[in-house]
Amino acid sequence: MNFASLLGLGQTALELGLICSLTVLALFLSYSMLNVCDLSTDGCFTLGAAVGAVVAISGHPYLAIFAAMLAGVCSGFMTALLQTRMGVDSLLAGIIVNTGLYSVNIFVMGGAAQLNLNKTETVFTIMKERLADTPFAGQYKLAVAILAVALIVGFLTFFLNTRLGLSIRATGDNPDMVRASSINPVFTTTVGLCVANAFTGLSGCLLSQSQKSVNTDIGSGMVTIALASLLIGRTLMGKGGIFTRAVGMVLGAFVFRLVYTIALRMNMPAYMLKLVSSTIVVIAIFLPYLKSQMPLMRRRMAGKGGH
Known about the structure:
The protein has about 300 residues and is mainly alpha-helical. It has helices spanning about 5-35, 40-55, 60-85, 90-110, 125-130, 140-160, 165-175, 175-180, 185-210, 220-235, 240-265, 275-305, and strands spanning about 115, 215.
């Protein structure tokens, strides 16, 4: 593999990593901040991709972005409604919504299993035209991904430091304390899940437009990928401020996609990729645990050496 191939490999991983990092940031908000494990991610990702594709095909590439995010908000609202108003466990609520979204996604796509966007104007084709006569003509996908991630990271950093954002973080830490402080945890949970799923919908929309197609399986395994990326990002950046941790999520998504892309280039069978994802998750979980156990292991080794 020559240098050009390595460079192309890195760029592909960076583009996909940035787009998927929006889902990682969604999981960061719901899982790390709100302490809710939202298992509707796969279905919500596909919903954003489907809605964005349908609206783009109808001739509205910019509106497709907002429509996909609005669809994500609706998904998050349903998950929150089941969890907060109907007494359904958060894990089960996510599974129920994810299952229901399978039918909704096919309905949105007009009963088709796949939509083609080859001849459709999207934000990527618009960016390609804008950069046509510049040195960055071939980097239009990367430009869109960077712009989207920068906006979401900036928004998330600002939002989580507002009064409402601090209330959401407090709800994840101690809902009883929040309730005693006259803050409605039902409201903060609902807002948090709606915002998080809006990010997921945006991520799905951008991926479908980047790949110029969308199918019902585009979001399959996305919750596993996002969780692995989140854990990798947490290991890389540690515990810092919101901005630092958000950047860590983006780095984690890039590292995951780089490993994933290398596995693809090694001609690994397609059925083995799920095992690769699971292995990365296990390693991402094990490394922080090993790091926390290192001082104890050193003390034990020192004790044995002394004896």
